[in-house]
């Protein structure tokens, strides 16, 4: 018999499930003429799901015999996921709307509904207390993501992105399943607590191999080196609102899941998984910094930037301490703001005919034709580079401080050195906007919603230190829930 308390704990997922099914019926009967209404109702559904999280402090705990965990860590991650998902829905209509008969395609009702369904899976991911819940949540998210990547069926790049994401995602799922089967075979349990107890009794070779395969499968989901190969192609080929979504919400969910697995399930084998995380972190930082230098497409550059930033976030996890986990969650919160702001700026890159433009060269002289857009994009690039006093600097400082406190001085030193390399390609964009000869001006006239999103994100990045007391308390509470 299902207990009422368990249903209360899964309220966010129930709200999203009910909302997505109702909207799916509306879309089926009304068609795309109500696409705008469905989009705003989807945002309202995300707000309603977020509102149910406020009851977690009184109703938190394990649901369904430990399969699902409703705690401060899950609530923190879900708020970031819902915010990123809502932003990705809000900015989509203008991109998909036809432009003088030559646009990217009609606005479709299915887009916001698919994002809601992906959010159901992501919510299960960050609340997983068992390998079965982990896998079900991961696949729920992935199935919606595969469709979103190839959403523009008439665009060969989008179709290619969806196919690559599907094939490589299936490979990663196989690797993850094999790791789960090894952990189950050698521990006798699929629950995180049962696996942790088995590892605590002695880390056998079977458990070690299972640990490696599970972390490899999760590394694909966060696009960490050496499982990053899908990221640049999918980011470039997918519609820009979808790329905005991929770069923010699923990244938070996958990072949250990786942290929960590492701390709760693999915690007693810290010395083993920490070495893996340290290698993946350093490889992602260095590769992301170097590979982005030669890019000419802004979306591919931001893809390598996301790989680079995942590496920095993993430094906090490598510390394996409450302070390290709190630093990683704070990093992800700041990263979501920078990413949304950066991609909304990319959405405003349109030629005189209103068609999307993605080349970095088209930004030449932007400071003369679109001063506000150039200033906002410069703020996001400086912040991603970790240049003080912007909020992105604080994110990097937190993870480096946690690494030093955990006696990982070498890791912090390499990370600081690599951040200097990574700053080069961010500064190249700023140099292009402010010092290069002007390119043809972008189309004039931008929607209020996009400008408002950019303004909000830029304000948070510039004045974010005022939010530090709130962010620090929330991330510390989220980390404490795992220890």
Automatic annotation (TrEMBL):
<feature type="transmembrane region" description="Helical">
    <location>
        <begin position="165"/>
        <end position="186"/>
    </location>
</feature>
<feature type="transmembrane region" description="Helical">
    <location>
        <begin position="403"/>
        <end position="427"/>
    </location>
</feature>
<feature type="transmembrane region" description="Helical">
    <location>
        <begin position="275"/>
        <end position="294"/>
    </location>
</feature>
<protein>
    <recommendedName>
        <fullName>NADH-quinone oxidoreductase subunit N</fullName>
        <ecNumber>7.1.1.-</ecNumber>
    </recommendedName>
</protein>
<dbReference type="Pfam" id="PF00361">
    <property type="entry name" value="Proton_antipo_M"/>
</dbReference>
<dbReference type="GO" id="GO:0012505">
    <property type="term" value="C:endomembrane system"/>
</dbReference>
<keyword id="KW-0520">NAD</keyword>
<comment type="function">
    <text>NDH-1 shuttles electrons from NADH, via FMN and iron-sulfur (Fe-S) centers, to quinones in the respiratory chain. The immediate electron acceptor for the enzyme in this species is believed to be ubiquinone. Couples the redox reaction to proton translocation (for every two electrons transferred, four hydrogen ions are translocated across the cytoplasmic membrane), and thus conserves the redox energy in a proton gradient.</text>
</comment>
<feature type="transmembrane region" description="Helical">
    <location>
        <begin position="372"/>
        <end position="391"/>
    </location>
</feature>
<keyword id="KW-1133">Transmembrane helix</keyword>
<comment type="similarity">
    <text>Belongs to the complex I subunit 2 family.</text>
</comment>
<feature type="transmembrane region" description="Helical">
    <location>
        <begin position="206"/>
        <end position="230"/>
    </location>
</feature>
<keyword id="KW-0560">Oxidoreductase</keyword>
<feature type="transmembrane region" description="Helical">
    <location>
        <begin position="6"/>
        <end position="27"/>
    </location>
</feature>
<feature type="transmembrane region" description="Helical">
    <location>
        <begin position="448"/>
        <end position="467"/>
    </location>
</feature>
<keyword id="KW-0472">Membrane</keyword>
<dbReference type="GO" id="GO:0008137">
    <property type="term" value="F:NADH dehydrogenase (ubiquinone) activity"/>
</dbReference>
<keyword id="KW-0874">Quinone</keyword>
<keyword id="KW-0812">Transmembrane</keyword>
<feature type="transmembrane region" description="Helical">
    <location>
        <begin position="109"/>
        <end position="128"/>
    </location>
</feature>
<dbReference type="InterPro" id="IPR010096">
    <property type="entry name" value="NADH-Q_OxRdtase_suN/2"/>
</dbReference>
<keyword id="KW-1003">Cell membrane</keyword>
<dbReference type="GO" id="GO:0042773">
    <property type="term" value="P:ATP synthesis coupled electron transport"/>
</dbReference>
<keyword id="KW-1278">Translocase</keyword>
<dbReference type="InterPro" id="IPR001750">
    <property type="entry name" value="ND/Mrp_TM"/>
</dbReference>
<keyword id="KW-0813">Transport</keyword>
<feature type="transmembrane region" description="Helical">
    <location>
        <begin position="73"/>
        <end position="97"/>
    </location>
</feature>
<dbReference type="GO" id="GO:0048038">
    <property type="term" value="F:quinone binding"/>
</dbReference>
<comment type="subunit">
    <text>NDH-1 is composed of 14 different subunits. Subunits NuoA, H, J, K, L, M, N constitute the membrane sector of the complex.</text>
</comment>
<feature type="transmembrane region" description="Helical">
    <location>
        <begin position="34"/>
        <end position="53"/>
    </location>
</feature>
<keyword id="KW-0830">Ubiquinone</keyword>
<dbReference type="GO" id="GO:0050136">
    <property type="term" value="F:NADH dehydrogenase (quinone) (non-electrogenic) activity"/>
</dbReference>
<feature type="transmembrane region" description="Helical">
    <location>
        <begin position="301"/>
        <end position="319"/>
    </location>
</feature>
<feature type="transmembrane region" description="Helical">
    <location>
        <begin position="325"/>
        <end position="347"/>
    </location>
</feature>
<feature type="domain" description="NADH:quinone oxidoreductase/Mrp antiporter transmembrane">
    <location>
        <begin position="128"/>
        <end position="422"/>
    </location>
</feature>
<dbReference type="GO" id="GO:0005886">
    <property type="term" value="C:plasma membrane"/>
</dbReference>
């Amino acid at each position: 018999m299902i207990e009422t308390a368990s249903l209360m704990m899964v309220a966010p997922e129930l709200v999203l499930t009910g909302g997505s099914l109702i909207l799916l019926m509306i879309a089926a009967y009304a068609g795309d003429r109500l696409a705008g209404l469905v989009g705003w109702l989807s945002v309202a559904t995300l707000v309603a799901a977020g509102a149910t999280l406020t009851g977690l402090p009184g109703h938190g705990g394990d649901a369904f015999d430990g399969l699902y965990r409703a705690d401060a860590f899950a609530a923190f991650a879900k708020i970031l996921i819902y915010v990123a998902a809502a932003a990705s829905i809000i900015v989509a209509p203008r991109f998909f709307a036809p432009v003088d008969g030559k646009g990217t395609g009609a606005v479709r009702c299915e887009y916001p509904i698919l994002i809601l369904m992906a959010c159901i899976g992501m919510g299960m991911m960050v609340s997983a207390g068992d390998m079965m819940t982990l896998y079900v949540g991961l696949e729920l998210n992935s199935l919606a993501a595969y469709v979103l990547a190839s959403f523009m069926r008439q665009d060969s790049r989008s179709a290619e992105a969806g196919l690559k994401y599907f094939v490589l995602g299936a490979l990663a799922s196989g690797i993850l399943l094999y790791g789960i089967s090894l952990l189950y075979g050698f521990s006798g349990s699929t629950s995180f607590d049962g696996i942790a107890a088995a590892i605590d009794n002695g880390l056998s070779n079977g458990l070690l191999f299972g640990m490696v395969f599970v972390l490899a499968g999760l590394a694909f989901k966060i696009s960490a080196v050496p499982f990053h190969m899908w990221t640049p192609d999918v980011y470039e080929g997918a519609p820009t609102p979808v790329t905005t979504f991929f770069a923010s919400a699923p990244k938070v969910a996958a990072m949250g899941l990786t942290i929960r697995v590492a701390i709760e399930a693999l915690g007693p084998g810290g010395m083993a998984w920490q070495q893996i995380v340290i290698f993946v972190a350093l490889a992602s930082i260095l590769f992301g910094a170097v590979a982005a230098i030669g890019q000419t497409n802004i979306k591919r550059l931001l893809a390598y930037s996301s790989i680079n930033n995942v590496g920095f976030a993993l430094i906090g996890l490598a510390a394996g301490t409450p302070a390290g986990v709190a630093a990683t969650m704070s990093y992800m919160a700041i990263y979501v703001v920078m990413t949304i702001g950066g991609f909304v700026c990319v959405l405003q890159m349109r030629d005189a005919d209103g068609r999307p433009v993605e080349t970095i060269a088209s930004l030449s002289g932007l400071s003369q034709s679109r001063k506000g857009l150039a200033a906002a994009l410069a703020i996001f690039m400086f912040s991603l580079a970790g240049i003080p006093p912007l909020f992105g600097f604080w994110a990097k400082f937190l993870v480096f401080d946690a690494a030093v406190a955990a006696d990982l001085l070498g890791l912090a030193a390499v990370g600081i050195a690599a951040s200097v390399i990574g700053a080069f390609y961010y500064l190249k964009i700023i140099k292009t906007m402010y010092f290069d000869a002007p390119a043809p001006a972008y189309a004039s006239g931008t929607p209020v919603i996009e400008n408002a999103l950019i303004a909000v994100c830029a304000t948070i990045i510039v004045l974010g230190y005022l939010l530090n007391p709130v962010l620090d308390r929330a991330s510390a509470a989220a980390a404490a829930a795992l220890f």
